[in-house]
Amino acid sequence: MKADCIFCAIIARKAPATIVSETDDVLVIKDIAPKTPIHYLIIPKHHYNDLQELNDCCVGSRLLSTAQQLSQETPQAKDYRLLINNGYGVGQRVFHLHMHFLAGKEFTDF
Ligand code: 5GP
Ligand code: ZN
Questions:
Q1: Residue 60 belongs to domain with CATH number
Q2: Which residue in 37, 52, 53, 71 could disulfide with 104, CB within 3.0 to 4.6 Å?
Q3: Is the pLDDT of residue 61 over 90?
């Protein structure tokens, strides 16, 4: 757990969030400012600042299998988009690795 990290605080239940699912190493919460009807954040419980720091292939694999499971469990999320912002220059604002799970609307851009 890293001090001053909002996602570490949420994982430790020291800050509020709407929790969608949880396993030993992954937490899924609803994004506080959803950009699509379904907008979840898939977050490894271990603190990595960004994808470049991820050094555990099991964790990477579990982030993806969590997305598969969310899709299976959510009727509106048969089709979905995954997004990782890696670095401030492309929009990363929370520096605890997370993957956006976006669904419930038609995407017309790439
Ligand atoms: P990034 O821009 O780093 O890829 O994404 C950060 C995301 O985290 C944003 O979509 C933002 O709305 C969301 N977010 C930031 N702070 C909080 C928070 O305290 N709680 C929740 N649930 N989401 C947050
Ligand atoms: Zn953190």
A1: 3.30.428.10
A2: 37
A3: yes
